[in-house]
Design a protein that fits this description.
The protein is α/β, with parallel strands linked by helices and 418 residues long. It is built from 15 helices and 13 strands. The strands form 2 sheets. It has a 7-stranded parallel sheet with strand order 3-2-1-4-5-6-7, sandwiched between helices. Helix 8 links the parallel strand 8 and strand 9. The N terminus is likely disordered.
């Protein structure tokens, strides 16, 4: 099933006041933050007023109204993934959100991630404001993926219970795929009417093929220390095991023996030094470049270096915001065969069984060997993304979700009084 879960033509009135709660180090140039950023920009273009409450760490974005917590004296860096340091940040973020709500008197709270939904509850109950919860994957699954929880442990079971309870609080839950919607329905028995699909989108005018002239391409490659005659495979996202970075590097090692002119540009953070050490152990340090964090506004230029893109994500519940960017660049894409990858890429994607290093290498090699087929697949992916995942389409889905949340809140207020 493809498309929004609710009619996209449904709109909300202009001029809403929206309190967004993002328990993360916003902004930090990766998928979760890009979704938050672009959704807020969409809402602003629709005439809505958005105030974002988030952690102290993170970069400011021009044009956004951001309210930050007090800093943690012992913690300066970004909070990425599961961390005990997020607990004191959340203890500061909850009162900040309440103070901002008392000042703003918002029509709706847009809560990102599970901690955001949890922190939104007191304010929602106190002021009678509906909550829209942006679900970006199972909380406990993410903790297991980050080796923060041991499956089946007491802490894991307790947090799974809390996760299911939180799922029932919001007025509406938005998800980035129909697979995630099905997960919530089966796992927490959420009614389909409470879930709206709001896809990860892309600006097809910024992310598009043909961005670089030959001179610009040469200069960019030289700046990265990559010979200009290499055939480029690109990845852009977080560097973590659940993102499939180790299997990707192992696939690169196998492919290198078959095609010595292939080079892997693996962009993102954190753990850059750790994966560089792995390239040395695998003997492919000269065939892999890990430049670290790439600014979001520079992402199209770096992706334009690639002939093939890879998305070896292993997580079963999270979305994959990198896929629309690859697709808009007309990059033929190889992914591990997960429901979310299938939903976004469709029949034009190339798939390997999750975790299968040999199959991943073979799929990349097949695209490099058949340039005509690779080009055709890339163009099909671009056509698909412009039709289904442009920000214009996402705007309709997001406004439909807002309209549903506000209508449900009004209905709940009328029923008790009646």
């Amino acid at each position: 099933m493809v498309g929004p879960s609710r009619p996209a033509q449904r709109r909300v009135e202009h001029g809403l006041r929206i309190l967004a709660i993002a328990p993360t180090s916003f902004f930090a140039d990766y998928g979760c933050h890009v979704r938050i950023l672009e959704q807020i920009r969409l809402l602003q273009r629709c005439g809505h007023q958005v105030h974002l409450c988030t952690y102290r760490s993170g970069g400011d974005v021009p044009g956004l109204t951001i309210r930050r917590t007090w800093p943690l004296l012992w913690r300066r860096g970004l909070e990425i993934g599961s961390s005990l340091h997020r607990i004191p940040y959340d203890l500061l973020l909850g009162p900040l959100a309440l103070r901002q709500a008392l000042h703003l008197r918002p029509h709706l709270i847009h809560a990102y991630l599970y901690e955001g939904a949890l922190l939104a509850l007191p304010t929602s109950r106190l002021l009678g404001i509906p909550i829209l919860f942006d679900f970006q994957g199972s909380l406990t699954s993410e903790m297991v993926d980050h080796y923060f929880l041991k499956p089946g442990s007491w802490a894991h079971c307790s947090l799974r219970w809390l996760e299911r309870v939180i799922n029932r609080w919001p007025t509406v839950i938005t998800v980035s795929s129909h697979h995630a919607a099905g997960f919530l329905q089966s796992d927490s028995r959420i009614t389909p009417s409470s879930i709206d699909v709001v896809y990860d989108g892309v600006d097809g005018t910024r992310f598009c093929p043909g961005l670089l002239s030959s001179g610009e391409r040469k200069a960019l490659l030289e700046g990265l220390g990559i010979p200009c005659d290499r055939r480029m495979v690109v990845y852009l996202g977080l560097l973590a095991e659940y993102q499939g970075i180790s299997p990707l590097l192992e696939a690169a090692a196998r492919l290198r023996t078959q095609q010595p002119d292939v080079h892997f540009l693996i962009m993102g953070f954190p753990r850059v030094d750790e994966y560089r050490r792995l390239t040395h152990r695998l003997g492919i340090a000269d065939a892999v470049t890990l430049p670290g964090r790439i600014p979001y506004d520079q992402a199209p230029r770096y992706l334009a270096l690639g002939e093939v893109a890879v998305a070896p994500k292993l997580s079963a519940t999270e979305g994959s915001g990198k896929l629309p960017n690859y697709m808009a660049m007309a990059l033929p894409t190889v992914a591990f065969d997960t429901p979310v990858s299938r939903e976004y890429l469709g029949p034009a994607g190339c798939y390997a069984p999750p975790g299968d290093v040999q199959a991943l290498a073979e799929q990349i090699e097949a695209l490099l060997a058949n340039e005509e087929e690779a080009r055709a697949r890339g163009l099909q992916l671009r056509e698909r993304v412009l039709q289904l995942y442009s920000w214009e389409v996402v705007q309709g889905q997001l406004e439909a979700a807002y309209a549903q949340a506000l209508a449900e809140e009004r209905r709940q207020k009328v029923v008790p009084s009646a």
